[in-house]
Specification:
The protein is an alpha/beta fold. The chain contains eight helices and seven strands, in the order E-H-E-H-E-H-E-H-E-H-E-H-H-H-E. The structure holds NADP nicotinamide-adenine-dinucleotide phosphate.
Length: 248
């Protein structure tokens, strides 16, 4: 897939750190011009841009709160203004609040759903209006939606909505040759994943995968790259687990 995205422009949301960073670097290596969206980490986002440019690619960091529909619209317009068109959208920005359902507050709900569901919906809406024909949308969900883990109810509910939106949008955009899929990572070594977990808990989660380890952001970027490629044009409306054969 070396350089197979030359001439394409991709927007990766939440690309300053973690999985989004790895996706931005990977798609940049494949030749795409990359819009590196971030919320707070401007230095980290600029570092991603510098790395893509140093590898001979094109990239631009743009700050936008992916929970705010007005900011999302501005982001799409800025990206298209800069690169002429947008071909690929990777909706990666997300948060995770882990609490027993008995403990969830209204504030937790707002925080969880405003980014993972409202923001993703309005990002998809902008893509539906502005993505070039033949484009690609990849939404990042989670393997947790298949596992029924205590304390993951609020987070899993938000990603359940992501998976449902993915399937319906695939039907709406299919006539324009745009594919819409979800990638559902398993436990993946990022700040979001490590927060509040002991090394022993992380080891146990790794032991649930066929490869006896948790995933890396690069593992997930590889799966996203497959769906972003021209060869994936007949795959749409799918939710694909990238989790190293994880079973509960
Ligand atoms: N890690 C895992 O084990 C795992 C497993 C399954 C699914 N996922 C999903 O994968 C995605 C990425 O997770 P991660 O582990 O890479 O997270 P992470 O390390 O916490 O990184 C989150 C990224 O999202 C950005 N972000 C946060 N709030 C934002 C907002 N309101 N607007 C724009 N960007 C925002 C952050 O930007 P700043 O740096 O500027 O704050 C950062 O770049 C999420 O959707 C998550 O649910 C993760």
């Amino acid at each position: 897939m070396e350089k197979c995205l030359t001439g394409k422009t991709v927007l990766v949301t939440g690309a300053s750190r973690g999985i989004g960073r790895a996706i931005a670097l990977k798609l940049g290596q494949m030749g795409a011009a990359v819009v590196v969206n971030y919320m707070n980490s401007s230095a980290a986002a600029e570092e991603v841009v510098e790395q893509i440019v140093a590898d001979g690619g094109k990239a631009l960091a743009i700050q936008a709160d992916m929970a705010d529909p007005a900011a999302i619209e501005k982001l799409f317009d800025q990206a298209i203004g800069e690169f002429g068109q947008l071909d690929i959208l990777i909706n990666n920005a997300g948060v995770a609040i882990y609490k027993a359902i008995a403990e969830v507050s209204e504030d937790d709900y707002e925080q969880q759903f405003s980014l993972n569901v409202k923001g993703l919906l309005f990002s998809c809406q902008q893509a539906a209006r502005k993505l070039a024909d033949g484009g690609r949308i990849v939404n990042i969900s989670t393997s947790v939606t298949k596992m029924m883990l205590p304390n993951y109810g609020l987070y899993a509910a938000s990603k359940g909505a992501v998976e449902q939106l993915t399937k319906v949008l695939a039907k709406e955009l299919g006539p324009r040759g745009i594919t819409v899929n979800a990638i559902s990572p398993g436990p993946t070594d990022t700040e979001l994943f490590r927060e509040g977990k002991t090394e022993e808990q992380i080891r146990q989660m790794g032991a649930m995968a066929a490869f006896n380890r948790i995933g890396t952001p690069e593992d997930i970027a590889g799966a996203v790259a497959l769906l972003a490629s021209a060869d994936a044009g007949w795959i749409s409306g799918q939710d694909i687990c990238a989790n190293g054969g994880l079973t509960a």
